[in-house]
Structures are given as structure tokens and as C-alpha cells.
Design a protein that fits this description.
alpha/beta; 23% strand; two-stranded antiparallel sheet; 6 helices; 9 strands
Length: 239
């Protein structure tokens, strides 16, 4: 299954739909898409904790002013610098695949506007997030601070290299497509840990696949494809 899809007129806060109604319809869309993609993803129903985080994190706070009327649509939106805020269903599925525990420390690669960071922060003890673009990193810090999200640290850097000072991480999320799973991130994943990363070149027509990477207690790594997706590429600093 490929994303995103539109099956009915989407809710817009600007057309008289209340924010609460728009949010509720978005959550219904996420549940519907989880059922539709469940045979591929193995997650026909997302956890209650994941859905609560999606309900409580205000997506409209993370998008530019011109996009706020569209914030509760189940679709990606532009956030500047050639980047996007991911489709809420994909955010929810990637979050759910991590099987987050309240005491987990998470490494996130690709902070963007900070929306996924806030969802992770709602479910885990601490999030260390790396963003290549300084303008986006600064904006994410401001938004997270304005919302009182205190358990996310954001740094500017090359996501391929991770954030080794705080490794190992029980959970790692990558929100940009790598040509291959970055070796440094595999190294920073703790035994028993889980990583979710889009892998492949270009958009979905060229074969990007959301991939679950697990490391067992002996350090052996397994990569399991989940479903086709389309993400911006994970870019090296020198590029």
C-alpha cells in the first residue's frame, strides 16, 4: 500500500470544522489506514499509547501559518527548506513499530519541525534528535519549548553519524530515506533495540521501503521490510 490516500472530503479548521472534530476525524483516518495496511505492516491496530500521543500533540503548532488550516489532514505538508512534515498515519505507524516504553531513550534522525519529536517525547523518557538544517533545528527547539516539551534535545549535524555521546539507544527513528541502513546507527542501537528507517533511493516509485531493524542480545541484526513509503533523502553534510 502506498501513502497518502484521500477517501473523503478532508476536515479543514478554516471551513467551519472545529479543531476537536478535525482532530477526531484524523484519528479515525489513522485507524482506518492501519486496518487497510495491516497485512503488510503487521499492525492492523495501533496501540492505545500511540493513539493518545497522536491525539495530544498539536500538529498545527508545527506547521507554517499558511498551512495551519490543513494541519489536521492525513497528508504531508511543506515546512520550508524543501522539507515536509510527515503524513500523520506514517508518524503513528513508525512510532508504534518502535514499541516504546516510558523509560526508553530514543535517537531521532531528522528533527524537521519537531512534530515527530514531540510524539516520541510523549511516550519515552528522553529524545535526542539530529537535524542537518540549522534553520529547522532552531525552529523545532522554539516550538518544543513553547509547548513545554522538556525531554527533547536537538542538535545540528549529519544524521548518518547519529549522536554517539548518548549511545546506546534502545530505540532509533529515522525520518528520511537512507540508501542503506547507516552503520553508525546500527552500532549505536542497543542489544534488544529497535530502529525504524526508510531505505531506498528516491520516492516510492524507486523502491523506498519502511524497514524495521532489530538487534538481539548477541548483537545480531535483522532487517524486516514493512511497507512502501516516500521520504526526502537522508543527506550527508558534505553533499
Amino acid at each position: 500500500m502506498r501513502f497518502w490516500t484521500r477517501r473523503r472530503k478532508p476536515p479543514r479548521v478554516s471551513d467551519g470544522t472545529s479543531e476537536d472534530d478535525a482532530r477526531a476525524r484524523l484519528l479515525d483516518d489513522i485507524r482506518d489506514m492501519a486496518r487497510l495496511s495491516g497485512a503488510e505492516s503487521g499492525r492492523p491496530a495501533l496501540s492505545q499509547r500511540t493513539m493518545e500521543a497522536m491525539a495530544q500533540v498539536p500538529r498545527d503548532a508545527f506547521v507554517p501559518a499558511a498551512e495551519k488550516p490543513l494541519a489536521w489532514l492525513n497528508r504531508p505538508l511543506p515546512i520550508g527548506q524543501g522539507q515536509t512534515i510527515s503524513q500523520p498515519f506514517v508518524v503513528a505507524l513508525m512510532t508504534d513499530l518502535l514499541d516504546l516504553e516510558p523509560d526508553d531513550t530514543v535517537l531521532e534522525i531528522g528533527t524537521g519541525c519537531g512534530y515527530q519529536s514531540a510524539v516520541l517525547a510523549h511516550l519515552a523518557a528522553h529524545v535526542y534528535s539530529v537535524e542537518r538544517l540549522p534553520e529547522l533545528a532552531a525552529g523545532a527547539r522554539r516550538t518544543l519549548a513553547d509547548l513545554g516539551v522538556a525531554n527533547v534535545d536537538v542538535r545540528t549535524g549529519d544524521g548518518h553519524l547519529g549522536w554517539p555521546e548518548h549511545a546506546p539507544y534502545k530505540k532509533i527513528m529515522v525520518t528520511a530515506a537512507a540508501e542503506d541502513v547507516p552503520p553508525a546507527l546500527v552500532e549505536q542501537l542497543a542489544p534488544g533495540g529497535r530502529m525504524v528507517v526508510p531505505v531506498g533511493r528516491g520516492g516510492w516509485l524507486w523502491g523506498q521501503e519502511l524497514t524495521l531493524v532489530t538487534k538481539d542480545a548477541a548483537g545480531d541484526v535483522t532487517e524486516s521490510p514493512i511497507l512502501g513509503v516516500a521520504f526526502v533523502p537522508l543527506v550527508h553534510d558534505e553533499a
